[in-house]
Design goal:
Elements (H helix, E strand, L loop, with lengths): L2 H8 L5 E2 L5 H11 L3 E5 L5 E6 H11 L25 H11 L3 E6 L2 E7 H25 L1
Parallel strand pairs: 1-2
Antiparallel strand pairs: 2-3, 4-5
């Protein structure tokens, strides 16, 4: 199973935001779209960062309500780890677990084509395990 499989089922819509936006702008989009992260894109759609709800909570912890007016460039993660559609699930699970992050932008030829979350990966893995269990049950019943 690959990242492409996940994207084919969940869609490839990615919420992005400009680096000139502030934390309040990001919170509004996160709440409206019911998502956990935004990809920050610059000129030509180039990824320059990612901001998650956890990043925002950390800023509130450190700066209180003043965090609302902070530019995303002060909050975002600049070293964005990405994946590609052909990447396999075990690699993605390892990457997310060791990196301790829950969202991976998906790039194809340096173009943003989607984003996957740990929830997407777990959902797909559970479906795969169910399918395997059903196949084993059928095999045992016919043997």
């Amino acid at each position: 199973m690959t990242v492409k499989t996940i994207l084919s089922q969940k869609g490839s819509d990615v919420a992005t935001i400009a680096p000139t936006a502030n934390v309040a702008d990001a919170i509004k989009i996160l709440c409206e779209r019911k998502i956990g992260a935004l990809v920050i894109t610059g000129a030509g759609g180039r990824i320059i960062g990612i901001v998650s709800e956890r990043d925002i909570v950390r800023m509130f912890g450190a700066h209180g309500a003043a965090a609302l007016d902070m530019p995303l460039t002060e909050v975002m993660t600049r070293k964005v780890v990405t994946c590609e559609p052909a990447d396999k699930m075990p690699e993605i699970m390892e990457l997310m677990t060791t990196g301790k992050f829950r969202h991976l932008p998906v790039l194809e030829e340096d173009r943003l084509v989607g984003i996957i979350s740990i929830g997407d990966v777990v959902k797909m893995r559970l479906a795969q395990l169910e399918h395997e269990q059903d196949a084993l049950r059928d095999y045992i019943q016919t043997a």
